């Protein structure tokens, strides 16, 4: 599933073509994706100007002049494709993403001269139009923790959120109520770069007095670093992720631990070998020698 860097990369790719433009035509080519489309889905979008395109965790959020927000989630295999100067018949695209155009499920024709097409072979993605003043109570967003690149997320906040937890560090970081938008890849990478074991108890980010430890500082710095590097690289392309112009992301070439089972640890002076084990149903990659 695309994680924060991939979704942020998609947002930046869509922004020039959607923000400030009017949705001249909206088309849902089936009744549902992961969830059924609302009956008034197309009607609430057609003719609306997109006043802003943001991101919350792994969700894209298009603010509309009507006061509505179009909430979009990529799911497992969803991707957006931009066709500039949209004069061709919908379905014929310059940058093919999925080989089967039968998976082009949603189209937005923008006044910017672009067709924005959502392709999703597995149909785990979803879209929903909600009122801006109902965002705080929206079930899909309610309870999400702070953004890991936002001002509210720092070592003290993370230590406080993990205080008293009996769960592991990795499980805590994957909990969207603790921090929103992190997934398996970037949690593995951040823990490795902070030299912290994925098996370490989350509560050790604070001491018995509730004061944050150096572990918390190292981990937050590593999270910031790995996310910023991944966004700069256009995200990680393992299976389905591509940028909106059809390019692959490149951060997978910078993985220091993820998907490197059996390879030598790249930490200077460490003679360890990267191992993999299953943790909470997910593959965890780590160096047992330098991650403590």
Descriptive notes:
With 292 residues, the protein is α+β, with helices and mostly antiparallel strands. Helices cover 22% and strands 21% of the residues. It folds into 2 domains: 4-137, MutM-like, N-terminal (N-terminal domain of MutM-like DNA repair proteins), CATH 3.20.190.10; 155-286, Helicase, Ruva Protein, domain 3 (Orthogonal Bundle). It has helices at 4-18, 41-45, 155-162, 169-174, 184-193, 214-232; strands spanning 23-28, 50-56, 59-64, 68-73, 79-84, 104-110, 114-119, 126-131, 275-279, 282-286. It has a 4-stranded antiparallel beta sheet. It has a 4-stranded antiparallel beta sheet with strand order 2-3-4-8. A two-stranded antiparallel ribbon has the order 9-10. Helix 1 packs across helix 6 (214-232). Mean pLDDT is 89; it is low at 87-99 and 238-243.
Fill in the keyword field for this structure.
single chain; 292 residues; alpha+beta; N-terminal domain of MutM-like DNA repair proteins; Helicase, Ruva Protein, domain 3; 2 domains; four-stranded antiparallel sheet; 10 strands; elongated
Radius of gyration: 20 Å
Mean pLDDT rating:
89
Task: Please state the second-level CATH architecture of the largest domain.
Answer: Alpha-Beta Barrel
| Unreliable segments of 5+ consecutive residues | 87-99, 238-243
Main β-sheet description: 4 strands, antiparallel
Tell me the strand percentage band: 15-25%
What structural class do helix, strand and pairing data support?
A: alpha+beta
**Count of helical segments?**
6
What kind of oligomer do you see? Answer: single chain
N→C terminal distance: 28 Å
Proportion of helical residues: 10-25%
The CATH topology annotation of the largest domain reads as: N-terminal domain of MutM-like DNA repair proteins
CATH C-level class of the largest domain:
Alpha Beta
Number of domains: 2
Q: What is the molecular shape?
A: elongated
Got a strand count? 10
What string, H for helix and E for strand, traces the elements in order? HEHEEEEEEEHHHHEE
CATH level-four homologous superfamily name of the largest domain: MutM-like, N-terminal
């Amino acid at each position: 599933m695309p994680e924060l860097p991939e979704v942020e990369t998609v947002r930046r790719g869509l922004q020039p073509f959607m923000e400030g433009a009017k949705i001249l035509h909206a088309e849902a080519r089936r009744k549902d994706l992961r969830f059924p489309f609302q009956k008034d889905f197309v009607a609430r979008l057609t003719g609306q100007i997109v006043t802003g395109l943001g991101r919350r965790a792994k969700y894209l959020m298009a603010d509309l002049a009507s006061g509505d927000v179009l909430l979009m989630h990529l799911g497992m295999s969803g991707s957006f494709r931009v066709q500039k100067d949209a004069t061709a018949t919908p379905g014929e695209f310059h940058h093919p993403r999925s080989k089967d155009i039968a998976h082009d499920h949603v189209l937005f024709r923008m006044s910017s001269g672009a067709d924005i097409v959502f392709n999703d072979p597995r149909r785990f993605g979803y879209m929903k139009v909600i009122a801006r003043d109902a965002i705080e109570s929206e079930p899909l967003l309610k309870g999400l923790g702070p953004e890991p690149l936002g001002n509210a997320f720092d070592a003290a906040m993370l230590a406080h959120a993990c205080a008293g937890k009996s769960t592991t560090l990795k499980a805590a970081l994957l909990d969207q109520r603790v921090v929103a938008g992190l997934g398996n890849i970037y949690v593995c990478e951040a823990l490795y770069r902070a030299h912290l074991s994925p098996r370490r108890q989350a509560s050790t980010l604070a001491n018995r007095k509730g004061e944050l430890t150096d572990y918390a500082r190292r981990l937050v710095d590593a999270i910031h670093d790995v996310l910023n590097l991944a966004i700069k690289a256009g995200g990680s392309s393992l299976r389905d992720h591509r940028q909106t112009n059809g390019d692959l992301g490149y951060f997978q070439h910078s993985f220091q631990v993820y998907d490197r089972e059996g390879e030598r640890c790249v930490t200077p002076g460490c003679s360890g070998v990267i191992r993999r084990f299953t943790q909470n149903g997910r593959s965890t990659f780590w160096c047992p020698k330098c991650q403590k």
